[in-house]
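Schema walk-through. Below, the input block comes first and the output block second. Nothing else is stored per chain. Lengths vary across the set, and this one has 102 residues.
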Amino acid sequence: MIFCSGQIGIDPKTSNLVQGIENQTKQILENLKNILEEAGSSLDKVIKTTIFLTNINDFQKVNEIYGQYFSFHKPARSTVCVASLPKGALIEIEAIALREKF
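--- output ---
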Protein backbone atom coordinates (compact mmCIF):
# COMPACT_ATOMS: atom_id res chain seq x y z
CA MET A 1 0.00 0.00 0.00
CA ILE A 2 1.03 3.58 -0.59
CA PHE A 3 0.01 6.28 1.86
CA CYS A 4 0.16 9.78 0.35
CA SER A 5 0.20 12.50 2.95
CA GLY A 6 -2.04 15.50 2.43
CA GLN A 7 -1.28 17.47 -0.71
CA ILE A 8 -2.07 21.12 -1.28
CA GLY A 9 -2.09 22.86 -4.67
CA ILE A 10 1.62 23.56 -4.96
CA ASP A 11 2.96 23.83 -8.50
CA PRO A 12 6.14 21.69 -8.43
CA LYS A 13 7.77 23.91 -11.09
CA THR A 14 7.44 27.12 -9.06
CA SER A 15 6.89 25.80 -5.50
CA ASN A 16 4.02 28.29 -5.25
CA LEU A 17 0.42 27.65 -4.28
CA VAL A 18 -1.84 28.05 -7.33
CA GLN A 19 -4.83 30.33 -6.89
CA GLY A 20 -8.53 29.42 -6.72
CA ILE A 21 -10.35 26.29 -5.63
CA GLU A 22 -10.56 24.84 -9.15
CA ASN A 23 -6.86 25.34 -9.89
CA GLN A 24 -5.82 24.01 -6.49
CA THR A 25 -7.99 20.91 -6.89
CA LYS A 26 -6.58 20.16 -10.36
CA GLN A 27 -3.00 20.75 -9.19
CA ILE A 28 -3.43 18.44 -6.20
CA LEU A 29 -4.86 15.65 -8.33
CA GLU A 30 -2.08 16.03 -10.91
CA ASN A 31 0.50 15.97 -8.11
CA LEU A 32 -1.10 12.85 -6.60
CA LYS A 33 -1.15 11.20 -10.03
CA ASN A 34 2.58 11.87 -10.46
CA ILE A 35 3.46 10.74 -6.93
CA LEU A 36 1.52 7.50 -7.32
CA GLU A 37 3.03 6.72 -10.73
CA GLU A 38 6.53 7.32 -9.35
CA ALA A 39 5.73 4.90 -6.51
CA GLY A 40 4.49 2.17 -8.89
CA SER A 41 0.77 2.85 -8.66
CA SER A 42 -1.88 5.07 -10.27
CA LEU A 43 -5.09 6.92 -9.55
CA ASP A 44 -6.94 3.76 -10.63
CA LYS A 45 -5.43 1.99 -7.61
CA VAL A 46 -6.56 4.59 -5.04
CA ILE A 47 -8.80 2.95 -2.46
CA LYS A 48 -9.45 5.91 -0.09
CA THR A 49 -9.15 9.69 -0.15
CA THR A 50 -9.76 12.33 2.46
CA ILE A 51 -10.52 15.88 1.32
CA PHE A 52 -10.12 18.85 3.64
CA LEU A 53 -11.94 22.04 2.59
CA THR A 54 -11.80 25.45 4.22
CA ASN A 55 -15.19 26.28 2.67
CA ILE A 56 -17.74 23.47 2.45
CA ASN A 57 -19.59 25.51 -0.20
CA ASP A 58 -16.72 24.59 -2.57
CA PHE A 59 -17.72 20.92 -2.39
CA GLN A 60 -19.67 20.92 -5.68
CA LYS A 61 -16.81 22.51 -7.65
CA VAL A 62 -14.32 20.08 -6.12
CA ASN A 63 -16.61 17.12 -6.74
CA GLU A 64 -16.91 17.98 -10.45
CA ILE A 65 -13.13 18.13 -10.90
CA TYR A 66 -12.57 15.06 -8.70
CA GLY A 67 -15.01 13.16 -10.91
CA GLN A 68 -12.86 13.89 -13.97
CA TYR A 69 -9.95 12.06 -12.32
CA PHE A 70 -12.03 9.26 -10.82
CA SER A 71 -14.69 8.85 -13.51
CA PHE A 72 -14.98 5.05 -13.52
CA HIS A 73 -13.12 4.07 -10.40
CA LYS A 74 -14.71 5.53 -7.25
CA PRO A 75 -12.51 5.18 -4.16
CA ALA A 76 -14.03 5.58 -0.70
CA ARG A 77 -13.94 9.26 0.24
CA SER A 78 -14.43 11.49 3.24
CA THR A 79 -14.74 15.27 3.05
CA VAL A 80 -14.14 17.43 6.10
CA CYS A 81 -14.51 21.17 6.58
CA VAL A 82 -11.56 22.69 8.45
CA ALA A 83 -10.77 26.17 9.76
CA SER A 84 -7.49 26.58 7.85
CA LEU A 85 -4.79 24.76 5.91
CA PRO A 86 -1.05 25.31 5.41
CA LYS A 87 0.01 28.28 3.27
CA GLY A 88 -3.60 29.48 3.11
CA ALA A 89 -4.62 26.57 0.86
CA LEU A 90 -8.33 26.14 0.18
CA ILE A 91 -8.15 22.34 -0.15
CA GLU A 92 -5.94 19.42 0.84
CA ILE A 93 -6.28 15.81 -0.33
CA GLU A 94 -4.63 12.69 1.08
CA ALA A 95 -4.84 9.26 -0.54
CA ILE A 96 -4.23 5.57 0.08
CA ALA A 97 -3.48 3.40 -2.94
CA LEU A 98 -2.42 -0.12 -3.79
CA ARG A 99 0.86 -0.77 -5.56
CA GLU A 100 0.61 -2.21 -9.06
CA LYS A 101 3.96 -3.98 -8.91
CA PHE A 102 5.25 -5.96 -5.98
